[in-house]
Design brief:
The complex is a heterodimer. By secondary structure, chain A is mainly α. In chain B, a hairpin with a 5-residue loop joins strand 11 and strand 12. Classes of the chains: A mainly alpha, B alpha+beta. The interface between A and B is large, with 53 and 54 residues.
């Protein structure tokens, strides 16, 4: 992105870390957390943390990654996108296609190889297709699966598919100056269209069955889940750290000033000669790509992906996390995503004790969403800065 | 000791049955059918083709109740004669191979006997045909027009060549024009299919020209049924529908497959057949001298198969050239099952003549469907047209207000059993409930966020999530029925192609009523004037003595209340679940945005466009509502590119910005 330089006298150059003291803090805490989980894990350490919990923590890290992406596009650039979970899901689908195809191929080759005559390539791919698509009453491999046998191709698609979709959609939307709530509704419509599309059986992604068995990694089928879960945990932690660094860099400096200015007064930035649409498109696409990567790391840990994951409500929850955590600060998004999603899975998973009031029994699975909804209203009304706003009090005390 | 009076006992035994005999006669008025049958006991008990007509005529003359049932059972050999008194009964099987006798007139169980005690009346095929024909003409000549119509419907359901003369006779006697028309058409239908004379059939088919009913088209299509044939050359006198050229109209491999199925060519070993043949010929890990592990490509497998073929152990491989040569020997064609070309030509012409009319009717049917869908969209969106369109408040909980209205209707229905009354109570009650909810929400939340539209969106999301879960907690997750009253349950059918259910008409009327009420309120009342003033310039309106707070509250309440009433009507056609609102919210916003924010007519236009679009897409891809919705949303995204302000764009100062 070529940013026209307007000012001759520039202030003393500050490093990224001087601009963002939170980056070092965050990196340190993330490192400590990763180390702690590794030491306590079943796969590599004391076994105090079950494999299941490691998976939940790893998934939470992925949710934190998409939350900071959401924070950049919404909190910094002012685009309330209600479609980033669609990019997340698309990333998951892209990696899921490889996971499912490659694993099925290994199984099929094993069973066909036991025959007297070795199978031909055509027979293998037909048998794989019949195995995968039998559930939707088809036995042909759809055209969109043509790269599913290749890991590098699908990894490229994890980046390309959400990126291209965001690029085309963003170009159309920003070009016609759709802003504010209209843009939010439009992104929501896009998400709805995508999830409805994926719900169909004949679109080649198994309809509402989704892709399953993603926790089994081809090439590592005999490695226990306790080890695999740690691999994914490390990968998620690494990507979260890298994503945090990337976004901290993007939102600091002059570029960051421009996108914050767009958020505050778009017309004025445009009159100053900046290409507002270009900046917005760049941020929208970049965050979509990061969301796709987060999804690609999330779903192998979840084990299954289906179109319900992409439904518009998921993207709304994403906005809820970021708003509760605190918009406009990256660590706020992380705090919001981690606390709300962990609390949510604790309360709806039956882990929390129900409260007996005598005349009424509060069952958390029933009341958690009511609480979340009302809490969200309160945060929006009275604490627009979210939980992250508390840090301001701490920082302000220091000189 | 005197001799026992054997003689007297004998006499008594003989006379008792005779004395009992008058008993049925005493009950004459209650058993008209039995009496009638008894008067011709001999013929009924052993019916012959020559004399059965007497009974049938008599039955038709008397027209006693239950005659049709008797004829049916008589023909089905379910009537029994009791030899002691000659009475007739129906029989049905009881336990342990016994037979339960049923009275013909009263339908009451009389006695349980074994099959040896009674004579089954055996009706031969000739007599049965007579009885069946009599039944039809009995009904067709019945003085009651409803019975005649029912008989015609029965004939239409199971057409039979035997019915032709009966229908002709009935047609001559028919006096009512409507029934006569229907008879004539049915006669045409029967003649077209069953008549023996070609000229009569052609004339009958001509009579069906332009008839768009399903039964007429089915009859014509049956005449035009074809079978796929192949022969060295087309046999003389065959009625060919079309000739299929291999490679163009018919796949070459499919053509060859048909040849080999008919035994005219050797079967072509496919990939699986080759694999199975090779598998069967594995000797010491080799097939024809080639190690098994090399057989993992189709080329290798074919080469190996050729080696086996040379050794003569497998059937020969059929090459492309073989296929072409074999197929070229034969002509592939579709042949009409009907041998007479005059008949098939007439049928084709008659069918073609209906094509335009049918597509026009189908278009009308599609338009009605689209209109019906549009009115549902309009109902769902019209509340938003006020809150979002006029006040510019993004209310994401709007869908939940619709749901609230629908559940109000459900609760009222559980309390008031009469569906009509409950509907009349539910409509205003739903308005009140959601009006109150809307006012409460405006006072507590939205009022504080008028300057921050994005935050309004978020806060109302929160409310939407909470309300949805609350409804789930109260009413459970399963769908609750909202039953419409009987007078809304049927459907209005114009013909076989166009019909619309009454409830959808009612919804359309309701949507129209809402439109008018809303237009009246906004344009003709003090409240509407003040609403428009406040939305255009709150400060100026306030200085004119209008209280903007009060107006905003009332307007929001009005929009929410209308959503509640819409919820009741939507609940009548869709299922009432806690998620029903969420299903409509995105489409409702789309409707308002596409139509043009700020204009009630815009919402109408948007709903019409979206409804028409969805039905149109569904027409191209029938049965796939999901695909239609997907493409519709995509279309809307593109549409907003070209008309960002919607169909009805406000101009000038009212456009705001």
């Amino acid at each position: 992105m070529d940013i026209p330089r307007k000012t001759a006298a520039r202030p003393r150059r500050r490093t990224l870390f001087q601009d963002n003291p939170s980056v070092l803090w965050f990196m340190g805490l993330l490192g400590l957390f990763t180390l702690g989980v590794t030491i306590l894990s079943e796969g590599f350490g004391l076994g105090l943390i079950s494999t299941n919990l490691v998976k939940i923590l790893g998934m939470t890290l992925c949710l934190c990654l998409i939350a900071i992406a959401m924070d950049v596009v919404w909190g910094y650039c002012g685009i309330l996108s209600l479609g980033h979970f669609a990019f997340f899901g698309l990333g998951g689908y892209m990696i899921g296609m490889w996971l499912m195809y490659a694993r099925t191929e290994i199984v099929i080759r094993g069973s066909l190889g036991r025959g007297t005559i070795p199978p031909t390539e055509l027979e293998v791919s037909e048998a794989v297709a019949a195995q995968i698509f039998g559930v939707v009453g088809s036995s042909e491999l759809p055209a969109i699966w043509m790269f599913a046998h290749s890991l590098p191709a699908q990894l490229a698609l994890v980046v390309l598919v959400p990126g291209l979709l965001a690029l085309i959609f963003g170009w159309l939307a920003f070009r016609s100056r759709v802003t504010g709530v209209y843009l939010s509704i439009l992104t929501q419509a896009m998400t709805l269209a995508l999830s409805l599309y994926l719900f169909q059986n004949d679109t080649g992604l198994r309809g509402n069955n989704g892709l399953s068995g993603l926790q089994n990694i081809p090439g590592a089928l005999d490695v226990p889940q306790s080890i695999i879960s740690m691999w994914f945990f490390w990968a998620s932690a690494f990507m979260l750290g890298a994503g945090y660094l990337l976004f901290a860099w993007v939102v600091s400096g002059k570029f960051g000033s421009v996108i914050r200015a767009i958020r505050d007064n778009e017309a004025r930035v445009r009159f100053l000669g900046y290409n507002v649409e270009g900046y917005k498109l760049f941020i929208f696409t970049l965050t979509a790509v990061i969301s796709g990567i987060a999804g690609a790391l999330y779903y192998p840990q979840a084990g299954i992906i289906n179109p319900a994951e992409i439904a518009p409500i998921a993207s709304i929850y994403l906005a809820v996390w970021v708003a509760i955590g605190g918009r406009g600060r990256l660590y706020g998004a992380v705090i919001g995503a981690a606390s709300v999603s962990l609390l949510s899975s604790w309360l709806t998973g039956g882990g929390a004790p129900n409260i007996d009031l005598g005349f009424y029994r509060i069952v958390w699975t029933d009341w958690w969403l009511v609480l979340l909804g009302l809490g969200f209203v309160l945060v929006t009304l009275f604490f627009p800065k979210g939980i992250g706003g508390l840090f301001d009090y701490l920082v302000r005390k220091q000189p | 000791m005197p001799r026992p009076p054997w003689f007297l006992i004998l006499v008594a035994c003989l006379t008792v049955p005779l004395l009992l005999r008058p008993a049925p006669l005493a009950a004459q008025t209650e058993t008209p059918l039995q009496d009638l049958l008894q008067s011709m006991q001999q013929i009924v008990a052993s019916p012959s083709r020559a004399r059965v007509a007497e009974v049938l005529d008599a039955l038709q003359q008397a027209d006693a109740p239950g005659t049709t049932t008797f004829l049916n059972r008589w023909a089905a050999r379910e009537v029994y004669e009791r030899p002691e008194d000659g009475l007739f009964f129906y029989g049905r099987e009881g336990a342990a191979r016994s037979l339960i006798l049923i009275d013909i007139d009263t339908d009451a169980d009389i006695a349980e006997v074994t099959t040896r005690d009674v004579n089954q009346i055996r009706v031969n095929a000739g007599v049965r045909r007579e009885i069946e024909a009599a039944m039809v003409s009995f009904e067709l000549l019945n003085p009651d027009p409803a019975r005649r119509s029912a008989a015609l419907a029965a004939i239409a359901r199971s057409p039979d060549p035997e019915q032709i003369p009966l229908l002709e006779a009935a047609l001559e006697a028919e006096e009512q024009a409507a029934i006569a028309t229907r008879m004539a058409r049915l006669l045409d239908l029967l003649n077209a299919r069953f008549a023996t004379d070609s000229a009569i059939r052609v004339a009958a088919i001509e009579g069906l020209r332009g008839d768009i009913s399903t039964e007429a088209r089915r009859a014509l299509n049956q005449i035009l049924a074809t079978s796929a044939e192949l022969a060295p050359e087309i046999p003389a006198g065959s009625n060919v529908a079309r000739i299929r050229v291999p490679g163009q109209d018919i796949d070459l491999l499919a053509a060859y497959q048909r040849l080999s199925d008919a035994g005219l060519a050797p079967p072509r070993p496919g990939r699986n057949a080759i694999r199975d043949a090779l598998r069967a010929n594995v000797v010491d890990g080799e097939v024809g001298g080639i190690p098994v592990h090399q057989l993992h490509t189709d080329e290798m497998r074919r080469a190996t198969y050729r080696a086996l073929e040379a050794a003569g152990s497998v059937p020969p491989l059929v090459t492309q050239a073989d296929i072409e040569a074999a197929v070229a020997e034969y002509v592939f064609f579709d042949q009409y099952l009907e041998p007479d070309p005059a008949v098939t030509d007439a049928a084709r012409a008659a069918l073609d003549s209906t094509r335009t009319a049918i597509s026009l009717w189908q278009f009308l049917s599609l338009s009605i469907d689209a209109l019906s869908l549009a009115s549902i969209f309009f109902l769902a969106a019209i509340g938003l047209a006020i809150t979002f369109g006029v006040m510019r408040v993004i209310n994401m909980a709007h869908g939940e207000f619709i749901m609230m209205g629908a559940y109000t209707g459900y609760v009222v229905q559980t309390m008031i059993p009469n569906y009509t009354t409950s509907l009349i109570v539910a409509l205003p009650l739903a308005f009140l409930v959601t009006f109150a909810a809307g006012v409460a929400m405006e006072r507590t939340v939205i009022r504080h966020l008028y300057s921050r539209p994005l935050e309004t969106l978020l806060a109302t999301f929160g409310i939407s999530i909470a309300l949805q879960q609350l409804a789930k907690n109260i009413f459970g997750t399963q769908a609750r029925p909202l039953t419409s009253p009987d007078w809304l349950a049927g459907s209005i059918a114009l013909n076989d192609l166009v019909s619309v259910s009454t409830i959808r008409v009612a919804i359309f009327v309701m949507a129209l009523a809402f439109l008018l009420i809303l237009l009246f309120i906004l344009n003709r009342t003090r409240l509407g004037l003040e609403v428009r003033a406040v939305t255009q310039n709150p400060g100026m309106a306030a200085s004119m003595g209008i209280n903007p707070d009060r107006i905003n509250m009332l307007t929001f309440g009005l929009g929410s209340g209308i959503a509640g009433v819409a919820g009741v009507s939507i609940g009548l056609v869709a299922q009432v679940t806690s998620e029903m609102g969420a299903n409509y919210i995105v489409q409702s916003f789309m409707t308002v945005v596409v139509g043009g924010v700020g204009s009630v007519f815009g919402t109408l236009a948007g709903a019409t466009l979206i409804g028409a679009l969805q039905k149109g897409i569904e027409w191209f891809n029938p049965g796939n509502t999901l695909a239609a919705q997907t493409y519709m949303v995509l279309f809307i995204i593109l549409f907003i590119q070209f008309r960002p302000k919607g169909i009805v764009a406000l101009k000038g100062r009212a456009a705001g910005d």
